[in-house]
Design a protein that fits this description.
5-stranded antiparallel β-sheet, 4 helices, 5 strands, about 40% helix
């Protein structure tokens, strides 16, 4: 057996192991989605926020993808200096569905007033997001915790 053949066999055996360890886990993908979503809200980027939401989104308040987009557009027109804080993130993954719950606070400026828009220092809002895996991406399909 030549050296090239041995190297090729070694690479073929080793590559699935390398891919397994380097491929991000579902939990790390969901953490990244939440982190990027929070950053997009702070930057008031509606398109980037909505890229984390499934077109099949529907919650208990009757919001769908389109209505949720309109809410973000309207709120971003009214607010500035948005700061999103979240902690105590817990993620549960089951096949192609998952949930992520966390404590949320949002500080924003409306007009000349700056303060807590969602939650406060002592009492954050406990949010729960339901997600589904669509192809290789996790997307939010439902949210609980906010009251309108």
């Amino acid at each position: 057996m030549s050296k090239k053949s041995i190297i090729l066999i070694f690479i073929l055996i080793l590559s699935p192991i390398i891919i397994y360890f380097l491929w991000p886990s579902d939990e790390s993908r969901i953490k990244k989605l939440i982190k990027e979503g929070a950053a997009a809200v702070e930057k008031e980027e509606v398109d980037n926020v909505m890229s984390k939401v499934s077109f099949n989104y529907q919650d208990n308040h009757g919001f769908t993808y389109i209505l949720l987009r309109k809410v973000f557009e309207e709120q971003f027109k009214r607010m500035s200096g948005i700061k999103v804080e979240y902690e105590n993130l817990k993620i549960e993954v089951k096949d192609k569905s998952a949930s992520a719950s966390f404590d949320l606070r949002v500080i924003a400026t409306i007009g000349n007033d700056t303060g807590y828009y969602i939650g406060d220092i002592k009492n954050p809002v406990r949010m729960k997001l339901y997600l589904e895996k669509e192809l290789l991406n996790w997307l939010v399909t439902k949210a609980e915790g906010l009251s309108f």
